[in-house]
Structures are given as C-alpha cells and as structure tokens.
Amino acid sequence: MNLDQHTSQKYNQELETVRAEVLAMGGLVEGQCRKALKALVKGRAELAEEVASSDYKVNEMEVSINAKCTDILALRQPAASDLRVVVAIIRMAADLERIGDEAEKIGRLAQTLAEGRNGSSYRSDPKHLGKSVLDILNGALDAFARLDVEAAIETAAMDPDIDAEFESLTRLLITRMMEKPASVKNLLRVNWCARSLERIGDHAVNICEEVIFLVKGSDVRHLSLKEIQDRFLQPTA
Amino acid sequence: MNLDQHTSQKYNQELETVRAEVLAMGGLVEGQCRKALKALVKGRAELAEEVASSDYKVNEMEVSINAKCTDILALRQPAASDLRVVVAIIRMAADLERIGDEAEKIGRLAQTLAEGRNGSSYRSDPKHLGKSVLDILNGALDAFARLDVEAAIETAAMDPDIDAEFESLTRLLITRMMEKPASVKNLLRVNWCARSLERIGDHAVNICEEVIFLVKGSDVRHLSLKEIQDRFLQPTA
C-alpha cells in the first residue's frame, strides 16, 4: 500500500481543480481591469457601472478558492513541497481579489467622470499607464499558468517603468491642477485612477513572486529585483 | 495512544509561539503608524525618516511568521478547526505587512513635507483622522489578542466613520487646492497620507474579520457589517 502516492494523486486532482479556478479568477479580474480602463478612457458610464457592480463575483471566487484550499490542507495533509502550492494559491487569490477592488474603484471614478461635466478633458491621460498595467497583469497570470519562473522575473522587471510612468503622470496632473484650479476635482479623480492602476501593477508583481515561491520554494517577496535575478536566472552567455 | 492529543499539544505550543510573534508584529506595526502620524503632524523629518527606513523589520517578521505557519502545516498536519487558526494567522500577517507599507509611505511623505517649504500649513489636517485610525488598529489588535468576537465586530463598526472623515478631509483639501493652486503639491501629499490612513483602517477591519473567522469559522470578509452583526451578536435585552 502506498498511501503517500495515493494521497498525492488525490491531491493532484483537487489541486488541478483549484488551480483552474485561480486561472478563471485571473481571467475575470483581467477582464474587469480591461473594462475599467476602457470605461475610463472612453467615458463610458454604463460600462463603468458594470465593472463597479460586478466585483462581488471576484469576491465569491476568492471565498470559494480559500474554502477549497482549506479542505485540501485538512483532508489531504500535503507534504512540505505541495503545501507551498496551496499557500501560494491562497495568497494569489488574495492579490487577485485586491486587483478586483482596484478595478471596482476605477469603475466608480470612471462613472463619476463620464457622467460629470468636463470629465472628458483629462480622462485619457492614464491611457498609456493603463496599457502597461494590463501588460504586467497579463504577464503575471501567464507566468502562473505556465509556472514559468523566468517569465515571472521578466514580468516583475516591468514594474519600475510603471512606477516612473505613474510619477510622471502625477507631475502632469499637478501642473494642470495649478493651471486650472476649477478642474482640481476631476484631476484628482484621474490621479486616483492612476494610483489604482499603479497598485494593480504592484499586485501583479506579488503574483510573479508567488510563482517563484511556488516553483523554487523561496519566499522572495522582500528581496530586490536584482537579488531575485541573481539568485534564479542563469547568466546568459 | 492518543496521537491526536499528542499532535494537538505540540501544535498548541508551536501555535502559541507564532501567535506571540503576530502580536509582536502587531505591536511593531502599531508603533510605526503612531510614529508616522506624529512625524507628519509635528513635521519631524528625522522621525519620519526613521519610520520610512524601518519597514524591513515588519517585512522580516512576516517572512518568519509565514515560514513558521508552513512548518506547522507540514509537520503537525492540524485538523480542520486548527487549520483555520494557521490560515487566519497567515492572512493577518499579510495585513500587518501592508499596514507597515502604508506607515512607510506616510513616513516618506511626512519627511518631504517636513523638509520642504510651506509644508507646515496643512500637515496637521489629518490629525483627527489619524487618531481614529490608531484607535481602530488598536481595537483590532486587542480583539485578536483576546480572541474577542464582540470586540472585533464593535471595532469593525468604526470604519464607516473613518471613511466619512476621509471623504470630508478630501473635500477640504480640494477646496484649498482650488483656492491656492501654488500649494497643490503639498496638499496632494497630505491627501495621500490621508488615503494611506484610510487604508490602514481597511486593513484593521480585515484583522477583525480574521478574528471572527478564527473563532467562529465563518469567512465573513465579503459580508456587510449588518450581516455580520446579525449573525454573530446576541440581541441585547
């Protein structure tokens, strides 16, 4: 009797199910972010409202994934290396849930901007930042789907550019606020959208770090990008 | 032979250790928030720098707590009800780490405000909001220390007031930006500090929800306060 093997097989099946659910949650969250950005940039109030009011779906998926993970831990008692997968999935679902929260916030702000007066003047400012953020999120989810450490590290390396883009957009918005004090409210809303986008980028980096943890078993969350690269990337010839 | 009991005793000892570590982490994070607020309101650049540069301690504690929890899961294989505790602790440590990040952000902004020109005019604006946020954080950590569901629910109920206070502070800052366009930069920094404070409040609510999950076994993270109260509070005579 090979109980270990037996447990591990059952565990693999259940893990595949929960992994598929995380991927589906990732797809849903990515769609929410894409819609939120479109609603913001194009000034589509209805689409913005749709994003803002469907965050509950993301929340439900997190609760379901957490429950499944807790069941796996309790019933399968996976060994140390397998445990990592479950712990990484719990943390990834938390990050996806927070990305969903940021998309919801952008949705609400986009709705106010689309419905209000003069909102159109500035709402296209975060367009480029938004595209970069969708790219890093897509890269992170893709790295998770393929459990690809190299892709995870490459994707995480996009974040400093996003931060720089956010800083420069903020400076632009500040200049505009000083020039047009009457537009301060709308410009501040645009700035909050930009900040939410920047945070989505941070969560995408967390997901990349979970992929590394999951595959390599090292908790790299508080290492610098340089340290991570030195440790896990082969030097190229 | 009572293996269950045996496992559970060892588990209890190890759990006590990790629980003490979470409490210590909570104390450290609370101290960081208190210092960050003081540095902001009093314009103390050195204190601000101290806060901004000691976030690594909080990060190290999270890594250590996570490693201990993973070991407990792997070696003790706790049963379903005990598992909850470990899962709750992993999530709580993540919330504390994010509170530490927000304190660090406030520290950096406070430093810029303290060192810059004219920073003093507005930096005391978030004083009252800051005190409310320190209260809710203290309440949440206290509810965890005593595993007190009622206190957790009461503490979480403070959050809507904090949100309202944040909204009203934001409106005040917007009015000031419109009146004094030259101060937009500093006012925006104050607004970001306020936003970080508001987020610390949100994380304190998460901690309250973890206390409920830990004691009652229900995942209440996406329920409304009213639903939580109806479910877990005894009607008072």
Automatic annotation (TrEMBL), chains A, B:
Its main location: cytoplasm. Keywords: Cytoplasm, Phosphate transport, Transport. GO terms for biological process: intracellular phosphate ion homeostasis; negative regulation of phosphate metabolic process; phosphate ion transport. Residues 23-109, 128-211 form the PhoU domain. Plays a role in the regulation of phosphate uptake. Homodimer. This is Phosphate-specific transport system accessory protein PhoU. It comes from Seongchinamella unica. The gene is phoU.
